[in-house]
């Protein structure tokens, strides 16, 4: 598999959560590649949650909306919960006027709140088996 | 030839566009491939900035441009997008004309209905673009392509 991030944004793993994002220049080809890469990583990394930061997106048109909805459904079929975080206010206004509600897509105000919803807090507790410095 | 228009129906449209103080020659961009879609978006974004649009209006116009350009590329087999700066008393405007030489839209009222799609999209492109702009005009004929003209005014 190609290890270069198709979308220009790496997919990081934090415990059982994958963290990634979308950039503005999403075209058909990179959307398909991103979808394939993310679903493959959910499986290989046994991810239970996915955070997609969209704070860089200046617009969401129906194409990007469809990509997000499909990604969310695919991830759910693989047992992972997706949270889309950081939508800009003008993007939210425009999406509603377009008639798109991103049905089925869970959102959070920002990445931090999204991670909290996925079970990550400011004092993270890694899953069993992860070495941790417990010195006080 | 089928035609649909709702020029000036929105309350925010203000006076009709016929009293334009000045016009600049439209800048025409090709919409032939995926990269063109991004180039066109950047060009429209730059034009909204130049016209002094608010961030929400910028987002509306760029989103509408993206929908229409993608329609022309996917359904029309490619086309052009022209950007025109308009001005009238108290307002700057931006007019986008998206034209393709594709098969045309056989059932225009269906195509303007949310959720209607013949492609892989969500079926909100045309109706959505109509709602995002102040003025909307479409001409289409079977085998003779489609031209969509949309305008948004920014009240100063």
From TrEMBL, chain A:
InterPro entries: Bact_StressResp_Reg (IPR051932), STAS_dom (IPR002645), STAS_dom_sf (IPR036513). Pfam families: STAS (PF01740). It comes from the Bacteria. SUPFAM superfamilies: SpoIIaa-like (SSF52091). This is Anti-anti-sigma factor.
Automatic annotation (TrEMBL), chain B:
GO terms for molecular function: protein serine/threonine kinase activity. Keywords: Kinase, Serine/threonine-protein kinase, Transferase. Residues 56-156 form the Histidine kinase/HSP90-like ATPase domain. It comes from the Bacteria. This is Serine/threonine protein kinase. InterPro entries: Anti-sigma-factor_SerPK, HATPase_C_sf, HATPase_dom. The lineage of its organism: Bacteria, Bacillati, Actinomycetota, Actinomycetes, Kitasatosporales. It comes from Streptomyces noursei (Streptomyces albulus).
